[in-house]
């Protein structure tokens, strides 16, 4: 909680410059605000006069507690990124701009062993590609609104259950991006996604099991799709300083717009969520296991392994690519790039990460990680090859 005394914190580093403010307003109201600007951009632009790199973000939270214990919380958050190059002749900028702004108003009330939370989110995402042939840049903006609710009940210290739902409205406004051939994708003007979920957490001695499920119904223009995602996670306390965890689940979602012009890959792109749903939903079967250990010096180490088996209704990153250069199967005869539609593909992602950290709030805190991962795509008649986003 925010203390009675107002707090200012300023930080300057080669990555960013930030400012933080926290204070109480009366007895029942708290204000927390922070803003950051990318110092690294000045360094990059100073080293290379043609490069442009700017990024910033802000967060503000106002919370107010009523006499009956209910809590209202308003959160504002925004991010902006600009990257590209400057023409040394006329000084014009050829840049990509992406960002978003969000507002979230939330109400929470505890009633004995039960609790209720409800709220609404709103805001917009924007994406402005580089201008063509020196012309003006046209930004694409997606407006969103999302009312939601969540209720829960604690039956005992070992058993708690909760359920909730949301309605997600998106105004895409991308009709001009419809594929001229009508083969690959269409863009509706707006879409509504209705979701319901339920979760139970059960603890028995050293074992905690958390099953959950989510149902989403997508209604975007004339297209409709429905998904059901069961999931489960398990945690077992082997020792007071050693915990093993595992999880498995199904995750669905609409195709995510991205593009690749190696060595540059970019995506998902804000405000482009409405493309390609007529081909169905992407699906991911995700499995992961980890071991968490508490070490001397207030350190914590986590070793995590994961594997994701994915199917893609539409893969935007492969549109128009010449798959004969992938080296997946030199004997295969891939279709001509202009006729190739990257529909209904399969892919995998697998890897491991070692993370060592000292928690925030200590006199010295931070983290160090090392990860190895591999991701690929499999195309019928071509073979399996590394994904452009593989790291």
Structural account:
By secondary structure, the protein is mainly β. Helices cover 2% and strands 63% of the residues. It contains one helix and 20 strands. It has one helix at residues 39-47; strands at 7-12, 17-25, 29-37, 51-65, 71-86, 93-111, 114-128, 140-156, 159-171, 190-204, 207-220, 223-239, 242-253, 259-261, 264-266, 282-295, 299-314, 343-358, 366-379, 383-386. The chain has an 18-stranded antiparallel beta sheet. It has a two-stranded antiparallel ribbon with strand order 14-15. The longest helix has 9 residues, at 39-47. It is globular and about 60 Å long. The mean pLDDT is 86.
Kindly name the structural category: mainly beta
- The radius of gyration is 24 Å
Strand content: over 45%
Helix content: under 10%
What form results from the Cα inertia axes? globular
**Count of helical segments?**
1
Number of β-strand runs: 20
Distance between the termini: 40 Å
Q: Order of SSEs, N→C?
A: EEEHEEEEEEEEEEEEEEEEE
Major pleated sheet: 18 strands, antiparallel
Poorly predicted segments: none
Key features?
391 residues; 1 helix
Topology:
Blueprint (H helix, E strand, L loop, with lengths): L6 E6 L4 E9 L3 E9 L1 H9 L3 E15 L5 E16 L6 E19 L2 E15 L11 E17 L2 E13 L18 E15 L2 E14 L2 E17 L2 E12 L5 E3 L2 E3 L15 E14 L3 E16 L28 E16 L7 E14 L3 E4 L5
Antiparallel strand pairs: 1-2, 2-3, 3-4, 4-5, 5-6, 6-7, 7-8, 8-9, 9-10, 10-11, 11-12, 12-13, 13-16, 14-15, 16-17, 17-18, 18-19, 19-20
